[in-house]
Amino acid sequence: MSGTSPEPDRRIDRNLFVTVSGPPGCGATTLVEGIAEALDCGYVSGGELFREIAAERDLSLSQLIAETGESEEIDRALDKRLRRIAEKWGTANKAFVLESRLAGWIAGNRADIRIWLDAPEEVRADRTADRAEMTSEMQVREVIEEQRYKSYYGIDLSDRSIYDLVINTGRWDAESTLELALTGIEGYDVESDEGAFDTPDFEV
C-alpha cells in the first residue's frame, strides 16, 4: 500500500465516529486520511499524539519509546488523551476518525464503526523501512504495547471480535482498501443494526 492518500471517488454524509487500528505499516494513516476526506471531518492519530508527547518532553521518538518500557506514566498519558478524544466525539453526533492501535478498545461502545488493519510482517517492514523510527524499534514497540495492554487493562490485542471490519491491506492497494472501508461506512444503517460486540469499559 502506498503512503500517498488516495482521493475518494465519493463523499459520504454520515455523522459517524470511526476508529481505525492496526500495527505499524498496516496503512492506517493512509486510510484515516481517505475516510476523513470522504466524511469531510477531522481526525487524530495516536502517532501524532505520541510525537506531541515526545516534543513536550524534549525527547526523540526512540528515547520516548525506551522510556515507555521503564514507566507506565507515558503509556497512560497517551491513553488518557485518546480516551478524552473518544469521549468527546462519541457523544458529538458528528463525523470524526480516531486512529491508534488501541483506538477501538479505548473508544469502546462510543464508536459507531471500528476497523482493524493488518498485513504480513514482511510487507509492513518494507513499508516502514524509510521512517525515522526504524523497523526494529517498531517491532520492539509492538511487543511492549501488547504486553502493557494485557498488564494494564486486561486487553488481548489478538482478539479481533470487537471490530466491525478487519482488512488485510497486503491484499489490496490503498485505493481499494479505502473503497472497502467506505462501502462499510456508507452501508451502515443504525435502524437495521442488530448489535456490535460489546466492549467492556476500563480505567486508563
TrEMBL record:
InterPro entries: Cyt_kin_arch, Cytidylate_kinase_dom, P-loop_NTPase. Gene3D superfamilies: P-loop containing nucleotide triphosphate hydrolases. ATP binds at residues 22-30. SUPFAM superfamilies: P-loop containing nucleoside triphosphate hydrolases. Its EC number is 2.7.4.25. It catalyses: CMP + ATP = CDP + ADP; dCMP + ATP = dCDP + ADP. The keyword Kinase applies. It is found in: Cytoplasm. GO terms for biological process: pyrimidine nucleotide metabolic process. Its main location: cytoplasm. GO terms for cellular component: cytoplasm. This is Cytidylate kinase. It comes from Halorubrum hochstenium ATCC 700873.
